[in-house]
Design a protein that fits this description.
Radius of gyration: 13 Å
Helix content: under 10%
Largest sheet: 7 strands, mixed
Oligomer: single chain
Order of helices and strands: EEEEEEEEEEE
Strand content: over 45%
Structural class: mainly beta
Number of strands: 11
């Protein structure tokens, strides 16, 4: 059974930085996609950033130039470096990993104060 364990969320002032990590355990297979979604209160969950096993990345327009996703395939771990954070980045951030199935982490709260 796959488990995704997230870490790195917290409270930060506007303009600050945070780094999220997500480590996958329990799988013998590499994920063809790993990424981060977020969900703010009253809003739908949205894809923030994703990265394929080959290193191809994609970002939501709202975070381009501020967030950077990276992964360590050997460790089945994905990172999200978030810089120049804004209050509108406040949300619960969820790690997502895909083979032929979707897997989700438990979520980590990111709060950006103005």
């Amino acid at each position: 059974q796959v488990q995704l364990v997230e870490s790195g969320g917290g409270l930060v002032q506007s303009g600050g930085s945070l780094r999220l990590s997500c480590a996958a355990s329990g799988s013998m297979f590499s994920f063809n996609f790993m990424g981060w979604y977020r969900q703010a209160p009253g809003k739908q969950r949205e894809l923030v950033a994703g990265i394929t096993s080959g290193g191809i990345t994609n970002y939501a327009d709202s975070v381009k130039g501020r967030f950077t996703i990276s992964r360590d395939n050997a460790k089945n771990t994905v990172y999200l470096q978030m810089n120049s954070l804004k209050p509108e980045d406040t949300a619960v951030y969820y790690c997502n990993a895909r083979t032929s199935s979707f897997y989700w982490g438990q979520g980590t709260q990111v709060t950006v104060s103005s």
